[in-house]
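User
Please review the sequence:
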Amino acid sequence: MTAALEVAASGKPRRHVITGGPNSGKDNLIDAVHAACIPCMTEEPGREIYRRHRERLDRHLLREDRRRYSLEVLSAFIAEYTAHTHGIRFYNRGIPDSYGWEGLFGLKPTTDLEEATRTYRYDAIFILDPLDTFEDPDDIAWANHETRRAHELIVQGYYDAGYEPIFVQPDPATARLDFICANLNLPTPSLRA
């Protein structure tokens, strides 16, 4: 893996998104990406921005708060995208995720989101199928139907943005990472000596 990443490091940027709705196991997979020493975002920017808004408002975000929040998240994703100038990098969600999250709150996409989606393109989109169990470390309550709807809207957002996502089965994180690496013609981390 190290040799493959070193070869890629001198090449053009290759950007790969890992996404899915709530309860998809994304955090565990991102941890596995980091453990394999593959360049990756450290944290999804939307979470920290959400926390700041929640602290400022002293409540969870409501529909009327979502537009400002979404524009801040979009700005953070654009900054993360443009900072990467060469080699492989995984992203903890991508710009088109906003289509799903805005849709969940009944909002239409902004022209800023539509322009960013056309301008900043990713090389591969990996959508994690939902897991059977749900734990919520951020204390954000999700009903099962909300979880499914969020996932479906995120998936639709990527299709609407012109992507053909690759779906990743609800396996353990190491198996999911091996599957993703195999799809990118990278060595599988679980096989390294």
Notes: The longest helix spans residues 63-83.
